[in-house]
Amino acid sequence: MKFNFKSSYVVIAVIGLIVILLFGGRMFMIIEPGERGVIFRPYTSGLDKDNIYTEGFHVIAPWNDMKVYNVREQQREETMDVLDKNGLSINTDVTVRFNPHYTQIGHLHEKFGVNFVNVLVIPEVRSSVRQVAGRYTAEEIYSTKRAEVEQAIISETRETLGENFIDMKALLIRSINLPAQIKGAIEAKLQQEQESLAYEYKLTKETAEAERRRIEAEGIANYNRIINESLTDKILKQRGIEATQDLAESPNAKVVVIGSGKDGLPLILGGN
Description:
Elements: H1 5-27, E1 28-31, E2 35-41, E3 46-47, E4 56-59, E5 65-70, E6 74-83, E7 89-100, H2 105-111, H3 116-133, H4 138-144, H5 146-162, E8 166-177, H6 180-230, H7 233-248, E9 256-260, E10 266-269
Antiparallel strand pairs: 1-4, 2-3, 2-5, 6-7, 7-8, 9-10
């Protein structure tokens, strides 16, 4: 029987087509922008944590498995009930923004898997919020130390997630809801504190003004005392003589001198 090369090519082509149809979905991978892939080789080296596949077209053996991760910045919103320092229940809405470290996908997959958001991120955010809230009172969380509470939650959550291959971009406390009675009491207290501060400011201002006036009055009194002590009879007589001379030398004055005053100064009459 003569061997037919043409028939052999057809058989090979058919076999190749069958392989592509059966395993094409596992052999040919397209990683989209904003994604990274990590490959698992079950029959040889296992999980390849060091080689991360970037976006584009990739061909892998059909018996290997490619895990694709979304490494874009993601956002989750959580509503939770936490207890304050005194055991009061507080309802809190939190938003967290994060993304996996691009080069650590293999380690993330080994430790947490593709469901890392629900296994790692959300539980850690909840845990940090509860731990931090437990160190403050409801009033501090709601008003006086809200920024401090938020920063403490951010710091502790970022540290924990960073140790587990997650880059936390931001964590925001959207709202803090207290029981109506507690909220009303806190707001009333804050209003009273503001009114008290306003009264203290007004009192301080008026006290300062009174002190300024007292100092001014003392200055005027001291000035008058010094002037009075310096005005002796001789000085007054000298000032009188100078004034008489100035008046006599005035071009518009017509002067008539009649005797002298009791202090020895002449009397000057007339003038236009």
